[in-house]
Amino acid sequence: MEPTPTASSPKIPRSQQEAQDMVLQYLQKTVDGLPAGTLLDGTDTIGGSNLPCDDNYMGPGPGPTEYSARTHVIGPAGITPADLITRTGDLWRSWGIPVMERNGFEKPNRFAFPTDGYGLQIEAAYPANYSPTLTVISPCFSGDLRKDDLLFPKVIHQTSPAG
């Protein structure tokens, strides 16, 4: 697998809410930059959740965690899932973020690595006519800050579509 670029200015979340808010900002900015009528649907996913950052952590206390949210990108009629993936990668590039396609994941895919340490990825589903999966992941932060009771939207609509 290709090496992951290192964030030049990582912004470590100081709270679970801060991590969730930034993940949601990236999701909202992405859906707003896609064709009018696109939405992000997380009704059949866990939505947002915490995952351990260090599988070898031995304590004491809770290990470092990252917050991620996974959604499906539902585009307007006439736009294929592959086109949504390409447009999403192009959108992220327009923000000045390095974007790559990675081996080891369903293709097409795009992975973006902002300087703040968050990770953005969109991957094709199988079969290829299914909606692609969009995930945003926070940098690792202290497991002591983890909260599992904060709400996260199941559907994210455009607030200012690109057109």
Quaternary status:
single chain
As residue ranges, the low-confidence spans are none
Query: What is the succession of H and E elements?
Result: HEEEHEEEEE
Number of DSSP helices? 2
Q: What is the radius of gyration computed over CA atoms, rounded to a whole number of angstroms?
A: 16 Å
Helix content: 10-25%
* DSSP strand tally: 8
How far is the N terminus from the C terminus?
Answer: 35 Å
Beta content: 15-25%
Largest sheet: 8 strands, antiparallel
Return the average pLDDT rounded to an integer: 91
Helix and strand content put the structural class at: alpha+beta
Any idea what the shape is? globular
Could you say how many structural domains there are in total? 1
Could you characterize the architecture of this molecule?
The protein is an alpha+beta fold and 163 residues long. Helices cover 20% and strands 23% of the residues. The chain has one domain (16-54, 64-143). The termini are far apart.
Present the secondary structure layout.
Elements: H1 16-33, E1 39-41, E2 48-52, E3 65-74, H2 81-94, E4 99-100, E5 109-112, E6 119-123, E7 133-137, E8 155-157
Antiparallel strand pairs: 1-3, 1-8, 2-3, 3-7, 4-5, 5-6, 6-7
The gist of it:
The protein is an alpha+beta fold.
Tags for this model:
about 160 residues, alpha+beta, 8-stranded antiparallel beta sheet
